[in-house]
Design a protein that fits this description.
This protein has 5 helices and 4 strands. The protein is of the alpha+beta class and 172 residues long. A 4-stranded antiparallel beta sheet has the order 2-3-1-4, covered by helices on one side. α2 (44-52) packs across α3 (56-68). The chain is elongated, with a radius of gyration of 18 Å. It starts with 24 loop residues before the first helix and ends in a 17-residue tail after the last strand. The relative contact order is 0.18.
Length: 172
């Protein structure tokens, strides 16, 4: 079994290796809007729909379709863990092919895991983990490594680089 580098969100759903990239103008407008401006409103899909000229039900259906196609990986807030008093770290593991599914499932089950990716590298599984303290994160990583029988390298950042990129799809 061969694995191409595939994004693995914590819910365990993999991004398709042959995604359908056909988007109409409304899809492009929705994607452009929700990247950094998902409305904090009681009916966010109504607000998005009004901004792009659709009704609430059609907007919700389109967002679901975009998720199913793998174009939307997740919808949720991003927080700077350090500013909230929490600790985050990057982790890497060299997982044998025959253990990949087991280890991926275990990593994705961890509540502090925010990203989980396969890579074409000796260290083929990379993920980020957050927790209320460095000690708590270190403990969770150690517990996880013992549970799956794979060494996990803990790579805490020494300097933060935050890059914000929004893709302006509606201009295409």
């Amino acid at each position: 079994m061969s694995h191409a580098p595939t994004a693995l969100p914590p819910d365990g759903a993999a991004i398709s290796e042959t995604p359908d990239h056909s988007l109409d103008l409304a899809d492009k407008r929705i994607l452009s809007l929700i990247q950094s401006g998902f409305p904090l409103a009681p009916r966010p899909y109504k607000v998005i729909g009004e901004a792009v000229g659709l009704n609430e039900a059609e907007t919700f259906a389109r967002v679901n379709t975009l998720r199913e196609k793998g174009l939307i990986r997740r919808i949720g807030a991003n927080f700077q863990a350090g500013k909230l008093g929490w600790h985050s770290t990057l982790c890497a593991a060299n997982v044998p092919e025959e253990k990949l599914e087991e280890v991926i499932a275990a990593v994705n089950a961890e509540p502090g895991v925010t990203h989980n990716y396969l890579r074409e590298h000796d260290y083929n599984l990379w993920f980020t983990m957050i927790g209320p303290s460095r000690e708590a994160v270190d403990r969770r990583i150690d517990d996880l490594a013992r549970a799956v029988g794979v060494a996990i390298i803990n790579l805490p950042a020494t300097r933060l680089y935050k890059i914000k990129v929004d893709f302006k799809l509606n201009e295409a």
